[in-house]
Amino acid sequence: MSVTDELVAANESFAASFTGGGLPGPPSRHVAVVACMDARLDVYRVLGLGDGEAHVIRNAGGVVTDDVLRSLTISQRKLGTTEVVLLHHSKCGMATFDDDEFVAELTADSGQPPEWAPGAFTDTEQDVRESLALVRDCPFLPHTDAVRGFVYDVDTGALAEVA
Amino acid sequence: MSVTDELVAANESFAASFTGGGLPGPPSRHVAVVACMDARLDVYRVLGLGDGEAHVIRNAGGVVTDDVLRSLTISQRKLGTTEVVLLHHSKCGMATFDDDEFVAELTADSGQPPEWAPGAFTDTEQDVRESLALVRDCPFLPHTDAVRGFVYDVDTGALAEVA
Hints:
homodimer, 163 residues, alpha/beta, Beta-carbonic Anhydrase, Chain A, 18% strand
Protein backbone atom coordinates (compact mmCIF):
# COMPACT_ATOMS: atom_id res chain seq x y z
CA MET A 1 0.00 0.00 0.00
CA SER A 2 1.50 3.33 -1.08
CA VAL A 3 1.33 6.50 0.98
CA THR A 4 -1.07 7.85 -1.65
CA ASP A 5 -3.35 4.84 -0.99
CA GLU A 6 -3.20 5.67 2.71
CA LEU A 7 -4.18 9.29 2.00
CA VAL A 8 -7.12 8.11 -0.13
CA ALA A 9 -8.25 5.85 2.72
CA ALA A 10 -7.91 8.73 5.19
CA ASN A 11 -10.06 10.87 2.89
CA GLU A 12 -12.81 8.23 2.93
CA SER A 13 -13.02 8.62 6.70
CA PHE A 14 -12.92 12.40 6.36
CA ALA A 15 -15.71 12.45 3.76
CA ALA A 16 -17.87 10.06 5.81
CA SER A 17 -18.20 12.66 8.56
CA PHE A 18 -17.96 15.77 6.35
CA THR A 19 -20.47 18.51 7.11
CA GLY A 20 -18.75 21.54 5.53
CA GLY A 21 -20.44 21.67 2.12
CA GLY A 22 -22.06 24.67 0.53
CA LEU A 23 -19.35 27.24 1.22
CA PRO A 24 -18.83 29.92 -1.45
CA GLY A 25 -15.56 30.12 -3.42
CA PRO A 26 -14.43 33.63 -2.44
CA PRO A 27 -12.54 33.50 0.89
CA SER A 28 -14.74 34.84 3.68
CA ARG A 29 -11.87 36.64 5.44
CA HIS A 30 -10.54 38.19 2.21
CA VAL A 31 -6.94 37.18 2.84
CA ALA A 32 -4.37 35.24 0.81
CA VAL A 33 -1.43 33.51 2.51
CA VAL A 34 1.80 32.76 0.61
CA ALA A 35 3.82 30.14 2.48
CA CYS A 36 6.65 27.67 2.07
CA MET A 37 5.70 24.07 1.17
CA ASP A 38 7.52 22.88 4.31
CA ALA A 39 5.89 19.86 5.95
CA ARG A 40 6.06 21.42 9.43
CA LEU A 41 3.91 24.38 8.44
CA ASP A 42 0.21 23.52 8.71
CA VAL A 43 -0.95 26.98 7.66
CA TYR A 44 -4.57 26.59 8.77
CA ARG A 45 -3.64 25.62 12.33
CA VAL A 46 -0.68 27.99 12.62
CA LEU A 47 -2.91 30.98 11.74
CA GLY A 48 -6.20 29.73 13.19
CA LEU A 49 -7.88 29.56 9.79
CA GLY A 50 -11.13 27.70 9.14
CA ASP A 51 -12.61 26.22 5.98
CA GLY A 52 -13.49 28.80 3.34
CA GLU A 53 -11.63 31.66 5.00
CA ALA A 54 -8.37 32.21 3.06
CA HIS A 55 -6.50 31.36 -0.10
CA VAL A 56 -3.29 29.45 0.62
CA ILE A 57 -0.51 29.60 -1.97
CA ARG A 58 2.63 27.54 -1.31
CA ASN A 59 5.89 26.69 -3.05
CA ALA A 60 9.49 25.82 -2.24
CA GLY A 61 10.63 28.64 0.04
CA GLY A 62 7.43 30.65 -0.03
CA VAL A 63 9.25 32.92 -2.49
CA VAL A 64 7.27 35.31 -4.68
CA THR A 65 7.57 33.98 -8.22
CA ASP A 66 5.58 34.83 -11.32
CA ASP A 67 3.27 31.94 -10.44
CA VAL A 68 2.61 33.44 -7.01
CA LEU A 69 1.84 36.82 -8.59
CA ARG A 70 -0.50 35.03 -11.04
CA SER A 71 -2.27 33.36 -8.12
CA LEU A 72 -2.50 36.58 -6.09
CA THR A 73 -3.84 38.47 -9.09
CA ILE A 74 -6.63 35.92 -9.54
CA SER A 75 -7.21 35.88 -5.77
CA GLN A 76 -7.70 39.66 -5.59
CA ARG A 77 -9.38 40.37 -8.91
CA LYS A 78 -11.62 37.33 -9.26
CA LEU A 79 -12.19 36.21 -5.68
CA GLY A 80 -12.12 39.38 -3.63
CA THR A 81 -9.11 39.10 -1.31
CA THR A 82 -7.55 42.35 -0.11
CA GLU A 83 -4.80 41.34 2.38
CA VAL A 84 -1.63 39.29 1.79
CA VAL A 85 0.37 37.39 4.41
CA LEU A 86 3.82 36.04 3.50
CA LEU A 87 5.04 33.13 5.62
CA HIS A 88 8.63 31.92 5.57
CA HIS A 89 10.07 29.79 8.40
CA SER A 90 13.18 28.80 10.32
CA LYS A 91 15.35 25.84 9.29
CA CYS A 92 14.17 26.07 5.68
CA GLY A 93 15.44 23.51 3.17
CA MET A 94 16.14 26.40 0.78
CA ALA A 95 19.18 27.28 2.91
CA THR A 96 20.73 23.81 2.48
CA PHE A 97 21.95 24.07 -1.10
CA ASP A 98 23.46 26.44 -3.65
CA ASP A 99 21.63 27.50 -6.82
CA ASP A 100 24.63 27.18 -9.16
CA GLU A 101 25.57 23.72 -7.88
CA PHE A 102 21.96 22.53 -8.09
CA VAL A 103 21.56 23.79 -11.67
CA ALA A 104 24.82 22.04 -12.60
CA GLU A 105 23.52 18.81 -11.03
CA LEU A 106 20.20 19.04 -12.89
CA THR A 107 21.92 19.82 -16.17
CA ALA A 108 24.35 16.92 -15.80
CA ASP A 109 21.60 14.45 -14.90
CA SER A 110 19.01 15.47 -17.50
CA GLY A 111 21.11 16.88 -20.34
CA GLN A 112 19.39 20.28 -20.12
CA PRO A 113 19.32 23.21 -17.72
CA PRO A 114 16.03 24.13 -16.02
CA GLU A 115 14.18 27.22 -17.26
CA TRP A 116 13.74 28.34 -13.65
CA ALA A 117 16.15 29.44 -10.92
CA PRO A 118 15.98 27.15 -7.88
CA GLY A 119 15.68 30.17 -5.56
CA ALA A 120 17.87 29.05 -2.65
CA PHE A 121 18.50 31.65 0.05
CA THR A 122 20.46 31.85 3.28
CA ASP A 123 19.01 35.00 4.89
CA THR A 124 15.35 34.28 5.58
CA GLU A 125 14.42 37.78 6.77
CA GLN A 126 16.03 39.32 3.68
CA ASP A 127 14.10 36.92 1.44
CA VAL A 128 10.87 37.98 3.16
CA ARG A 129 11.76 41.63 2.48
CA GLU A 130 12.42 40.91 -1.19
CA SER A 131 9.15 38.98 -1.42
CA LEU A 132 7.24 41.84 0.22
CA ALA A 133 8.67 44.26 -2.35
CA LEU A 134 7.71 42.02 -5.26
CA VAL A 135 4.09 41.83 -4.09
CA ARG A 136 3.85 45.55 -3.34
CA ASP A 137 5.32 46.41 -6.75
CA CYS A 138 3.12 44.05 -8.78
CA PRO A 139 1.18 46.22 -11.28
CA PHE A 140 -1.72 43.75 -11.50
CA LEU A 141 -2.70 43.74 -7.82
CA PRO A 142 -5.37 46.29 -6.84
CA HIS A 143 -4.67 45.82 -3.08
CA THR A 144 -1.06 46.27 -1.94
CA ASP A 145 -1.47 48.34 1.22
CA ALA A 146 -2.01 45.35 3.53
CA VAL A 147 0.93 43.09 2.66
CA ARG A 148 2.86 41.76 5.66
CA GLY A 149 5.61 39.18 6.07
CA PHE A 150 6.52 36.77 8.88
CA VAL A 151 9.02 34.07 9.80
CA TYR A 152 7.51 31.03 11.51
CA ASP A 153 9.69 29.27 14.08
CA VAL A 154 9.20 25.54 13.47
CA ASP A 155 10.45 24.77 16.98
CA THR A 156 8.23 27.16 18.96
CA GLY A 157 5.20 27.61 16.69
CA ALA A 158 5.53 31.40 16.93
CA LEU A 159 5.55 34.07 14.21
CA ALA A 160 7.98 36.99 14.06
CA GLU A 161 7.06 39.87 11.76
CA VAL A 162 9.63 41.18 9.30
CA ALA A 163 9.48 44.95 8.94
CA MET B 1 -7.99 45.37 13.61
CA SER B 2 -7.12 43.83 10.24
CA VAL B 3 -7.63 40.17 9.44
CA THR B 4 -3.83 39.83 9.48
CA ASP B 5 -3.83 41.17 13.06
CA GLU B 6 -6.44 38.54 13.93
CA LEU B 7 -4.26 35.79 12.42
CA VAL B 8 -1.26 37.02 14.43
CA ALA B 9 -3.37 36.91 17.60
CA ALA B 10 -4.56 33.40 16.71
CA ASN B 11 -0.94 32.34 16.26
CA GLU B 12 -0.09 33.59 19.75
CA SER B 13 -2.66 31.17 21.17
CA PHE B 14 -1.36 28.41 18.88
CA ALA B 15 2.27 28.98 19.92
CA ALA B 16 1.35 29.09 23.62
CA SER B 17 0.26 25.46 23.51
CA PHE B 18 2.68 24.30 20.78
CA THR B 19 4.41 20.99 21.45
CA GLY B 20 5.43 19.96 17.93
CA GLY B 21 9.02 21.24 17.77
CA GLY B 22 12.07 19.27 16.74
CA LEU B 23 10.68 17.67 13.59
CA PRO B 24 13.15 17.19 10.72
CA GLY B 25 12.72 19.07 7.42
CA PRO B 26 12.33 16.11 5.05
CA PRO B 27 8.68 14.96 4.99
CA SER B 28 8.33 11.73 6.97
CA ARG B 29 5.83 10.20 4.52
CA HIS B 30 7.87 11.13 1.44
CA VAL B 31 4.95 12.64 -0.44
CA ALA B 32 4.35 16.02 -2.08
CA VAL B 33 0.82 17.32 -2.67
CA VAL B 34 0.07 19.89 -5.40
CA ALA B 35 -3.31 21.52 -4.75
CA CYS B 36 -5.41 24.51 -5.66
CA MET B 37 -5.24 27.54 -3.34
CA ASP B 38 -9.03 27.31 -2.83
CA ALA B 39 -10.16 28.31 0.65
CA ARG B 40 -12.38 25.24 1.02
CA LEU B 41 -9.48 22.83 0.63
CA ASP B 42 -7.71 22.26 3.95
CA VAL B 43 -5.21 19.78 2.52
CA TYR B 44 -3.99 18.42 5.86
CA ARG B 45 -7.49 17.51 7.07
CA VAL B 46 -8.79 16.35 3.68
CA LEU B 47 -5.92 13.84 3.37
CA GLY B 48 -5.39 13.05 7.05
CA LEU B 49 -1.89 14.55 7.09
CA GLY B 50 -0.01 15.41 10.27
CA ASP B 51 2.81 17.86 10.96
CA GLY B 52 6.05 17.02 9.21
CA GLU B 53 4.54 14.43 6.89
CA ALA B 54 4.19 15.99 3.42
CA HIS B 55 5.16 18.94 1.29
CA VAL B 56 2.15 20.99 0.22
CA ILE B 57 2.45 23.10 -2.93
CA ARG B 58 -0.52 25.28 -3.90
CA ASN B 59 -1.44 27.85 -6.53
CA ALA B 60 -4.46 29.15 -8.43
CA GLY B 61 -6.00 26.02 -9.93
CA GLY B 62 -3.44 23.54 -8.68
CA VAL B 63 -2.04 23.64 -12.21
CA VAL B 64 1.47 22.39 -12.90
CA THR B 65 3.54 25.45 -13.74
CA ASP B 66 7.31 25.90 -13.91
CA ASP B 67 7.18 27.01 -10.29
CA VAL B 68 5.46 23.76 -9.30
CA LEU B 69 8.10 21.74 -11.17
CA ARG B 70 10.79 23.79 -9.40
CA SER B 71 9.20 23.00 -6.04
CA LEU B 72 8.77 19.29 -6.84
CA THR B 73 12.37 19.05 -8.05
CA ILE B 74 13.62 20.49 -4.74
CA SER B 75 11.15 18.28 -2.85
CA GLN B 76 12.41 15.08 -4.48
CA ARG B 77 16.11 15.84 -4.88
CA LYS B 78 16.84 17.74 -1.70
CA LEU B 79 14.18 16.53 0.72
CA GLY B 80 13.53 12.92 -0.27
CA THR B 81 9.92 12.77 -1.47
CA THR B 82 9.03 10.02 -3.96
CA GLU B 83 5.24 10.26 -4.48
CA VAL B 84 3.18 13.12 -5.96
CA VAL B 85 -0.54 13.76 -5.40
CA LEU B 86 -2.33 16.34 -7.58
CA LEU B 87 -5.48 17.82 -6.08
CA HIS B 88 -7.97 19.83 -8.11
CA HIS B 89 -11.55 20.40 -6.93
CA SER B 90 -15.14 21.02 -7.97
CA LYS B 91 -16.55 24.54 -8.38
CA CYS B 92 -13.09 26.00 -9.00
CA GLY B 93 -12.72 29.74 -9.51
CA MET B 94 -10.52 28.99 -12.53
CA ALA B 95 -13.67 28.03 -14.45
CA THR B 96 -15.29 31.43 -13.89
CA PHE B 97 -13.27 33.55 -16.30
CA ASP B 98 -11.58 33.52 -19.70
CA ASP B 99 -7.82 33.90 -20.14
CA ASP B 100 -7.97 36.30 -23.09
CA GLU B 101 -10.51 38.58 -21.42
CA PHE B 102 -8.54 38.58 -18.17
CA VAL B 103 -5.26 39.43 -19.92
CA ALA B 104 -7.04 42.27 -21.76
CA GLU B 105 -8.38 43.56 -18.42
CA LEU B 106 -4.94 43.42 -16.77
CA THR B 107 -3.30 45.11 -19.74
CA ALA B 108 -5.90 47.89 -19.83
CA ASP B 109 -5.63 48.53 -16.09
CA SER B 110 -1.85 48.40 -15.73
CA GLY B 111 -0.57 49.43 -19.15
CA GLN B 112 1.30 46.16 -19.63
CA PRO B 113 0.41 42.52 -20.25
CA PRO B 114 1.38 39.91 -17.65
CA GLU B 115 4.33 37.62 -18.44
CA TRP B 116 2.24 34.65 -17.34
CA ALA B 117 -0.91 33.02 -18.69
CA PRO B 118 -3.77 33.08 -16.15
CA GLY B 119 -4.42 29.37 -16.69
CA ALA B 120 -8.22 29.30 -16.58
CA PHE B 121 -9.84 25.96 -17.43
CA THR B 122 -13.37 24.61 -17.76
CA ASP B 123 -12.77 20.84 -17.79
CA THR B 124 -11.30 19.96 -14.40
CA GLU B 125 -10.60 16.29 -15.16
CA GLN B 126 -8.81 17.24 -18.39
CA ASP B 127 -6.70 19.77 -16.51
CA VAL B 128 -5.72 17.08 -14.01
CA ARG B 129 -4.67 14.83 -16.92
CA GLU B 130 -2.55 17.59 -18.43
CA SER B 131 -1.00 18.28 -15.04
CA LEU B 132 -0.23 14.57 -14.54
CA ALA B 133 1.53 14.49 -17.93
CA LEU B 134 3.62 17.57 -17.11
CA VAL B 135 4.86 16.02 -13.87
CA ARG B 136 5.56 12.61 -15.43
CA ASP B 137 7.48 14.22 -18.31
CA CYS B 138 9.60 16.54 -16.16
CA PRO B 139 13.25 15.65 -16.86
CA PHE B 140 14.44 16.86 -13.45
CA LEU B 141 12.29 14.57 -11.29
CA PRO B 142 13.88 11.26 -10.30
CA HIS B 143 10.54 9.77 -9.13
CA THR B 144 7.66 9.85 -11.63
CA ASP B 145 6.16 6.37 -11.24
CA ALA B 146 3.90 7.30 -8.31
CA VAL B 147 2.10 10.40 -9.60
CA ARG B 148 -1.68 10.39 -9.16
CA GLY B 149 -4.41 12.99 -9.64
CA PHE B 150 -7.74 13.61 -7.92
CA VAL B 151 -10.71 15.95 -7.96
CA TYR B 152 -11.98 16.96 -4.51
CA ASP B 153 -15.71 17.59 -4.18
CA VAL B 154 -16.07 20.70 -2.03
CA ASP B 155 -19.66 19.76 -1.18
CA THR B 156 -19.09 16.15 -0.06
CA GLY B 157 -15.45 16.15 1.07
CA ALA B 158 -14.72 13.14 -1.17
CA LEU B 159 -11.92 12.54 -3.69
CA ALA B 160 -12.40 11.03 -7.14
CA GLU B 161 -9.29 9.77 -8.90
CA VAL B 162 -8.61 10.84 -12.49
CA ALA B 163 -7.15 8.01 -14.56
